[in-house]
Amino acid sequence: MQLKSVGLPKTRRFCISKAALKRTFGDIESLSVHMGDLGQTFKFDERCYQHPRLSGSVVASLSVSREATAILQFYAVPVGSYAPPAVVDFRDRVLPRLRNWLLSRLHRPQTAVLGHEQRIVEWTGTEHREHDVRYL
Question: pTM for the whole thing?
Fold first, then answer.
């Protein structure tokens, strides 16, 4: 796992710590983790024509390419809108599911890969929602 991060002002935060990321994804070599350095906000890929409606803030997205490489991106959110219980929920509930989702995509045979796949994690203000999209 390769990890790159940017510094944040005290008014913004990420949904997870670097230590928790290393514990969860440290053994996956084909994963690049970016904490704010690829972009400040989430944008759908231009090849994705059908995408879910998002009502909250995207805090993370995990993409797997046809070549079985993965990019996990985290987006900063205001501290006031993402309380400590949300961080605990992301760490304990969402992060293990992201790992399982990623491993299931990486261990598929090449003939089962149809294109790029992405899991988007949205924070609605009260809960995390996960959305899956696929595009060529």
Answer: 0.92
